[in-house]
Amino acid sequence: MTEHWDQQRERGTPFMMYLLVKTALLCGRHVVRVVLWPIVGYFLLTSPASVRASRHALARLLRRPARYADVLRHFYSYAACALDRVLLLCGRNPRLQVSIHQPPELPNTVKRGGCVLLVSHMGSVEVMRSVEVLRTVKVADHDLQVSVLMDLQAGRKFFGLMKRFNPRLDMNIIDAGMRGPQLVLALKAELDAGRVVGIAADRARADERSIEVEFAGGKARVPEGPWLLAAACKVPILLGFCLYQGGNRYAAHFEVFSDRLELPRDTRAAALQAVAQRYAQRLEHYACSAPYNWFNFYEYWPSDMAKP
């Protein structure tokens, strides 16, 4: 059985992480992509629980048994996205080609004020909130600003290293480690300022309230918090998926999920269940269309834990 995702430890020594990042910054993206293959091979050999989770997830999303080549491609896609994420967090431009897909009403929805942008552990959130993408989404001279909720404590080694290369890294990042009323107030302040707040909605912590949904032929749990926040702040909900397509190509997909989420007190549980299930259907749509972008390397479906 794999550990729950928020109990997994960071892999890699600080020196090796530093060496990889430094090489990427000095030699460029194309050089480091070559050495990703032995790195991926190492993790395949030393991470049996993650390999097992990958195989189970791919079998559901591909709707066929996952081969070893599928798992290899899955791990490499994750490594390629991680490399681009490092370059973007360090303030570098990896010269990516990003096709943007958005409904006509999206720019006006964003221009009206604060929005919650629900993201997931698929593809690259960093590419989606890169300057080039946000310039395309914005309306006229309205600057689209995105703050992202991240647990800096969970990835403290990684973020500590990134700050060495980019001291301004924590700008536009809200630390999920605050928790409780302090976190809610920080999120509300961002929304009241008219910013877009990105929150991962595809996986729940072991200690947070969650909702069970039907997803890819099984039962999974998603967090309750993003829906309660959007309803309490009376702001629109957007969905964002930025999918890696190989090489330097990504496709950023945006959707307007709700102009204003209503959760009546007397039917709140049923309303939460309905909205979470609708989100799970959209998540499943993108996960099945780009299964190698699924970067939840733990037993996402509890029923899979019993499988060999």
Report what the structure shows.
The strands form two sheets. The protein has a seven-stranded mixed sheet with strand order 1-9-8-2-5-3-4, sandwiched between helices. Helix 8 links the parallel strand 3 and strand 4 (173-175). The radius of gyration is 19 Å and the shape is globular. The longest helix has 22 residues, at 68-89. It has one domain (5-306). The mean pLDDT is 84. Helix 1 packs antiparallel against helix 2 (29-46), helix 2 crosses helix 4 and helix 3 packs across helix 4 (68-89). The protein is built from eleven helices and nine strands. With 308 residues, it is of the alpha/beta class.
Quick structural overview:
The protein has 308 residues and is α/β, with parallel strands linked by helices.
Oligomeric state as shown: single chain
End-to-end Cα distance: 10 Å
Order of helices and strands: HHHHEHEHHEHEHEEEHEEH
Largest beta-sheet details: 7 strands, mixed
Find the count of extended strands (DSSP E, 2+ residues): 9
Q: Please identify the structural class as seen in this structure.
A: alpha/beta
Mean of pLDDT: 84
Number of helices: 11
**Strand order, biggest sheet?**
1-9-8-2-5-3-4
Rg measurement, Å: 19 Å
Q: How many domains make up the 3D coordinates?
A: 1
Give the uncertain stretches in residue-range form. none
Portion in beta strands? 15-25%
Helix amount: 40-55%
Shape, please?
Answer: globular
